[in-house]
């Protein structure tokens, strides 16, 4: 009997949250219900999610950056259908993949100083590969990473995570990993001068907080890595693939990393795919003899669906000029947000590159508002943002979230296809809700509830 997915989904749609709470992550269900994000989506198109009542939600999360092309792009769907209809001979293992070779060629065309590619299933897996490549190529073990970094949640990647929330309870982590401040070349040199560091792994723009380096930082990173024989690894998993208005975010500063890690948007939003791009000599240190041809790999990494999704994504980006669009529309969006929010009590700054944008808030000036803000801040540094995000979702049908744990920053990762109508809508909505927060209106009741829950949770953990 053929599985009828349409009927199965229709028959059991009302069980979604119960099933997830029973068999998967019940705490996530509680979070969604507490903040009112518990919707049942029936479909998605472009920049929008569509619930079963037909309400359209502008998606500024983009699956943490996965849906750069928007959701369900027809060209990616068409490519995947061709693979399925073609009944191709994939994952033979004792063979090589033509589609993988073509995708590697097209990726490397965007970063011509690199020559080799390794495919995997996720960003975290690309980071794991980078650690192994760096240690094998240099004969060294130390890996240097930054405070506030997020490189994934598998053990090697977690060992480079700069947020204690993610690390706590999972120790001991991978050894010989050293943390330095982000955007501090002097601190980096202090570690590198011992000449025992295999790699410095850094997000050129940090995803947690959308932290942008000073203009000379990455050039200094490249110079120091070359001086001390350390590989410069750029984690472009979220910021790459055109999101910031360049193919790689590091290209804004004219540097040429030794290893680049990609994932998220490369999938087109369908089939998981990650990639590591590197210099030939590094690659050949790992795969240096025939008996080591399989010394590192991943069973499903070069599957034809994933390779086709990557090829279709690159084609759409080129056809629709999405990298250029990210630069121009992103700049317009940031300018409009600054104009509308400037002078508001809680507003501090808008920063970003292209379509990777942060809106930062902070303590208000007026005495009337300080006490209310302090209550939320004492419970959790990012809790005030929910007083903006919840009504954005409920009143304006805009989905967004905080930029990271314990920080008063909202991050926007719009699909690169958004246009003038979406920019106008989200800017007007943000202005309305930031203004409303200053009135100490009804949403503050929810704020007090969330603060109380956060404090109780902290007490239980302590």
From TrEMBL:
Gene3D superfamilies hit by this protein: Aspartate Aminotransferase, domain 1, Type I PLP-dependent aspartate aminotransferase-like (Major domain)
Catalytic class of the enzyme: transferase
PROSITE patterns hit by this protein: AA_TRANSFER_CLASS_3
One GO molecular-function entry: ornithine aminotransferase activity
Entry protein name: Ornithine aminotransferase
A Pfam family assignment: Aminotran_3
EC annotation from Swiss-Prot or TrEMBL: 2.6.1.13
Cofactor(s) for this UniProt protein: pyridoxal 5'-phosphate
Family note: Belongs to the class-III pyridoxal-phosphate-dependent aminotransferase family.
Keywords from the UniProt entry: Aminotransferase, Pyridoxal phosphate, Transferase
Record InterPro entries: Aminotrans_3, Aminotrans_3_PPA_site, Class-III_PLP-dep_AT, PyrdxlP-dep_Trfase, PyrdxlP-dep_Trfase_major, PyrdxlP-dep_Trfase_small
